[in-house]
Amino acid sequence: MDKISIGQNFFIPMPVVLVGTQLNGKANFMAVGWCARVNGNPPMIACGIANNHYTPQGMTTTKTFSVNIPSSDLLEKTDYCGIVSGAKTDKSGIFDVFYGSLKTAPMIKECPVTLECRLVQTVSLPTHGLYIGEIIGTYADGSVIKDGKPDFPAIDPLFLTMPDNRYWTLGKHAGDAWSAGKKLIKGK
């Protein structure tokens, strides 16, 4: 099938997370779709956040933040955290909050998985900042761990697609990484 040019659209499905920060002594959460693992050891994660948002102030002030993975039953609260600014609205009471060893990275009890991060680097880009954090602690509900590993259907994460601006949930298992392609290796 022939390819057609469609411009510079975003066609990469993205996991939706809630980034938690502490601002003026209060927990604040923002929905973020641009977040990915960026280093193995030490484990690091990066979140791209538009320069005009309030959340980065907390990240750069405390040098900490959290990445919370909401399940689909938190869709309304997650979307709310993405459309209402913490600069104008107190979002500290939306979720039950807990803290880990860093003491200034608020995490969400209702989220099946949360990551506690120490800010290690900020990269300034034309419209966004890339906030890179070392994962200091990971917390998960026992119900989403199976044989010592994350059970992603049980986590029920949300994904964002653009430019249609829609949320999606995880689909069916399609194959195993670092295994499905082995039959194409010559000599095997």
Question: What does this 3D model show about the protein?
Answer:
The radius of gyration is 18 Å and the shape is globular. It is 11% helix and 40% strand. Strands 3-2-6-9-10-5-4 form a seven-stranded antiparallel β-sheet. With 188 residues, the chain is mainly β. It has three helices and 14 strands. The chain has helices spanning 55-62, 75-83, 152-155; strands at residues 14-15, 17-23, 26-32, 35-39, 44-50, 64-69, 97-98, 107-108, 113-124, 128-140, 145-146, 149-150, 158-161, 166-169. The model has no long low-confidence stretch (mean pLDDT 94).
Distance between the termini: 31 Å
Query: Roughly how much helix do the residues carry, as a percent range?
Result: 10-25%
Oligomer: single chain
Strand order of the largest sheet: 3-2-6-9-10-5-4
What's the helix count? 3
| Class computed from helices, strands and strand pairing | mainly beta
Instruction: Please state the average pLDDT score.
Output: 94
Low-pLDDT segments, ≥5 res: none
Biggest β-sheet strands, sense, barrel: 7 strands, antiparallel
The outline comes out as globular
Percentage of β-strand residues: 35-45%
Element order, helices and strands? EEEEEHEHEEEEEEHEE
Radius of gyration: 18 Å
Care to count the β-strands? 14
